Amino acid sequence: MVNYRFLGNSGLKISEITLGNWVTHASQVSDDAAVRTVHAALDAGITTFDTADTYANTAAETVLGDALQGQRRAGLEIFTKVFFPTGPMGPNDTGLSRKHIFESIDGSLQRLQTDYVDLYQAHRYDHETPLEETMQAFADVVRQGKALYIGVSEWTAEQLREGHALSKQLGFQLISNQPQYSMLHRVIEGKVVPASEELGISQIVWSPMAQGVLSGKYLPGQPVPAGSRATDDKSGANFISKFLRDDILEAVQRLKPIAADAGLTMPQLAIAWVLQNPNIAAALVGASRPEQLADTVKASGVVLDDDTKAAIDTALGDVVFSDPEDTYTVSPKQRLV
């Protein structure tokens, strides 16, 4: 069964392996398969589910809401996000303006079939809306009981500091950040994690398996597997492309004996590695089939010894993305519509 961790400086506990539905629900898999996967997650002790209004242009929220019907609401932690364009993608159908936040939370609650979400997240930083307007809108959403806590995604250390200060002034808690993080992508370690530790903010990390590259199934000098994420533009092919260099794929192959020595599969090693960082509250995983989760959840509670972690660093060498300046390039400078 899955272990639980506190989310930021709050009393909220979440499952340290969290099921996300970015490229699966209403996209890669049928609705029936999505329901079976959600139920398999629940059976494994996963109680935390992450989605966003922009996934499949709102349809992923609907699928998750349907899949969770009949479950005890107080026993679940449901997360969603706001920022990216949705609906007909008009000029106010994006960003973190008061108008878009208020309209988006109501739409998300309707699709998720719930009166509130446990965590409402700014999916990116909005450079075109005053931060004071955004944080006041979030404060009002919390006071209305539509969200219990507020989080963000891919914010820089400075943005986290500014947002945290405003949240304290406005009387609510900013408790989480959702960045990309894996053995291969460690850009948050330099600035974001130290600032978050100081502020009482946890990371809920996405792509702990580097879009599947850390499974070891992508081989250097070989075509990508048919039907894999690398072949599907709807499934994050642009995100995985940077990891498909031969030097990276060769380094990943060197992880296989390390995983075997630790008694782990490659996916388990990747997720367990992420969870060794005490600032990480949860690793976000996706699954298109229930049996994938049966392997993944075994990473919960695994402790990697210092020799294993050192061997991982040696195997990967200099192919790791670690420049903290990369955190400043994620949020778009202008809205996307």
Automatic annotation (TrEMBL):
Keywords: NADP, Oxidoreductase. It comes from the Bacteria. One of its GO terms (cellular component) is cytosol. One of its GO terms (molecular function) is oxidoreductase activity. Residues 17-314 form the NADP-dependent oxidoreductase domain. Pfam families: Aldo_ket_red. Belongs to the shaker potassium channel beta subunit family. This is Aryl-alcohol dehydrogenase-like predicted oxidoreductase. It comes from Leucobacter exalbidus.
